[in-house]
Amino acid sequence: MPSYFLAGSNAVWFYEHKTMIIKILQNALLAGVILLTNMMALSCSTAPENFNQQELSLIHEADSIMRVLTIDNPEDSAVLRAKSSDLSADALRSDDYKRLAELMLATVTHPSQDGVGIAAPQVGINRRVVAVQRFDKEEVLPDGSEGCPFEVYPNIRIVSKSEKLESGPEGCLSVPDRNGEVLRSREIVIEYADVNRLDEEDCMVRETVYGFTAVIFQHEVDHLDGVLYIDRLR
Ligand SMILES: [Zn+2]
Questions:
Q1: CATH number for the domain formed by residue range(s) 50-232
Q2: Rounded to an integer, what distance in angstroms lies between the CA atom of residue 41 and that of residue 201?
C-alpha cells in the first residue's frame, strides 16, 4: 500500500472524528484545571474532614477537663494505637475546635496531670492536634506571671529531623507510673496549619525547633501515628 494512501486515510479519519477528538482534549484540559484548583484549595488542609458525632460528644460533654486515656485500658489502648487524621479548614474555624484546644490545654496543665504536652488521641480524639509547652519561649501568661507558654498545633507533621540524636528521660500521661530513656533528634522542622490564616491559599507554617521543645514535639507527633515512647525505649 503506497504511503501517501495511508497518510490520506489518516487525514480522512481525523477529519471525520475531529469533533470527538477536540471534545476529548477539552475534557482532559478541564479535568487538569479542576484537579489543580482542588489541590490549591486543599493546601490548607489535606483532608476535607470535620469532627464526627462521637468526637463532638466527647468535646461538648467534657466539663472543665477531659479524661486522659491510658494503655492499661484495652478500649483506650485501641484509640491510642490508631492513626489520627487532619481536620478541614472549616473544622479548624469552628467553635468545636476552639473548645477542644481549650480543653486540651486545661487537661495538660491540670494539677492531676501536670504534663508538658498532650496529643488529641490522649483525650479520645484521633485528629492531628497537639498542645506543647514551648520551653524555647517566655512570655506573660494569662495569670500575669512570666513563663513558657503552651501552644496548640493542628494538622501537624514533622517534615525533617536532624541525624544528630540525644538521649533523654521521658514519661507519658497515657502510660502511668513509668518512664525511660529515649533517643530523639536534636533539631526538627514541623509543619502545621496557622488558624489565623485559614482563608489564605497556603496557611501551612514551617518552623525549626531545637532541644527539649523538639523532644516534646517528637513525643506528641508520635501519638498521632499511634506510636508511644515505650516503643522507642533503648
Ligand atoms: Zn505521651
A1: 3.90.45.10
A2: 7
